[in-house]
Amino acid sequence: MAPRRLGALLMMFLVISPALFDRSVAEPDSRWEAKRRLLREKVRRMFYHAYDNYMTHAFPHDELKPLTKTFTDSLSELGNLKLEHLPQDYNGSALTLIESLSSLVILGNNTEFEKAVFWLSENLRFDVDARINLFECNIRVLGGLVSAHILATDSTDRLVQGSYKNQLLFLAKDLGERFLPAFDTPTGLPYAWINLKHGVTADETTETSTSGCGSLILEMGTLSRLTGDPRFESAALRALRKLWSMRSSLNLLGTTLDVETGEWIEYSSGIGAGVDSFYEYLFKAYILFGKEDYWRMFHSAYLAVQKYFRHGPWYHEADMRTGKATYWQLTSLQAFWPGLQVLVGDVDAANSTHREFVHVWKKFGVIPERYLLDHQMVHPTEKYYPLRPELAESTFYLYQATKDPWYIEVGESMVNSLNQYTKVEGGFASVRDVTTMQLEDHQHSFFLAETCKYLYLLFDDQFLVNQNYVFTTEGHPLPVTRDWQERLPETFIPSNWTFVEADKRTRRASAMSLRLCPASSTPSHGQRMESACHVPDAWDSHRCSTDEECGIDSSTCRRRSCSMAGYCGLWLSL
């Protein structure tokens, strides 16, 4: 997709919310609405089958082992977060409960949400001698806490009035402060692992991934906005900018790097494991915070991905230095990409890639962790499917963008497969081998945080009506609010911004910042608002060689085209 078209479509698909889409176009008929209601209830039963079994057999430990109806403290890899009022040798953090908080709200269970909030408020503590993985703890625990805090305070009928006093936010700030020593490196890039009580140990590894140090800005930025403490957002932003400065001349990044030296370790990269959420957070941070830097970085990175990684509907891996293909493989984590493309507005490309993932799903009944494209076979050692949510996520976004009932059929196929192959008496089990459907005794917390959530939202989007949310990479919703948007400094005066008189003060404003549209706003008192749809031409001289170098006209919201003489204008309307 050309840069100008990408920018023009940004405002159209800025945030996934039903209010943004024209309901008068391609509205599903009553038959599809009936099917959606039926499937919604099916997903509701799935969620509670998983949740109730966790609460019965595993709570307050981290995750459920559904085959044996026991538990696993999976945060032992992340940190052994001990809880007060429990035996000293207990190792658990109620991870699945934290991850389920926003899902409970989306399903309309405010009673269970309230019980979970107050249990965590009274029991969860982070002052423990525990080594945690910064990225995982950030997206799962910190993200779960800040999202739940917002949901607990944005509606008076979710909790008993006056009973909630920001306890989850206090926990989130305590955790965020324990993250900060990880950023104390010569480069500003954080260590992948840190001890919650003692900070970074002398023998800690200096290796981390691009996702690990470049996917912290949503949760830590939100924490700063909620607390008024800029340290969290500043640390995450410094790391992100340093990481971007390490890109190659092709605007590509590698997969792993050294936080002390700032040198790359693994030069091969793609849109899958180790890099995926880096791209996701660049764009979603732009939506959430409005900082132009995020858009510039994402725009350049997106074009590089399309140029060097894309091969038809698939995306292979390539060397960041040369752009030459290294590995021709599909990984299940790549299935998030069509959903991101929908947010950007590249719907045709999203649909093309999504259909290939659906084809693989239908071939095996689920998606294998790694599929070798050049050999058309499952990777011999990575045959598993751990109940991942990425395909459900992209299916949800594509249905929201198109209202095409085919995506409802895709969701139905996924629901049926999950119930047929992974549902057991004690919950939902991961698949160890997709070629035999042998199961593994593990129900990951993200099955409740994401997989069930996106499937439910596919069939019932009531939670999103009249609301704008950005979902983190772990599926935790964060609201898009004007108060969090970047305010440009006085010295920055783009040509499409004007002065607006208000309260005897002069400030810079645009239709985008004030959420106004020329068709619905009437100039008064000398005010003149620039269209939010305005996209400047690629060059200040308005010279062009193709239509893609022309933008969107600021007054008519119509696309400009390139004349035979090589100038952008509204030539097609003359």
UniProtKB/TrEMBL annotation:
Keywords: Calcium, Endoplasmic reticulum, Glycoprotein, Glycosidase, Hydrolase, Membrane, Metal-binding, Signal, Signal-anchor, Transmembrane, Transmembrane helix. The keyword Glycoprotein applies. InterPro entries: 6hp_glycosidase-like_sf, EDEM1/2/3, Glyco_hydro_47, Seven-hairpin_glycosidases. It comes from Eucalyptus globulus. It holds the Pfam family Glyco_hydro_47. Its cofactor is Ca(2+). SUPFAM superfamilies: Seven-hairpin glycosidases (SSF48225). It comes from the Eukaryota. Belongs to the glycosyl hydrolase 47 family. One of its GO terms (molecular function) is alpha-mannosidase activity. Its main location: endoplasmic reticulum. GO terms for cellular component: endoplasmic reticulum membrane. This is alpha-1,2-Mannosidase. The active site is at E136 (proton donor), D276, E369 (proton donor), E390. It is found in: Endoplasmic reticulum membrane. The keyword Endoplasmic reticulum applies. Its EC number is 3.2.1.-. Residues 1-26 form the signal peptide.
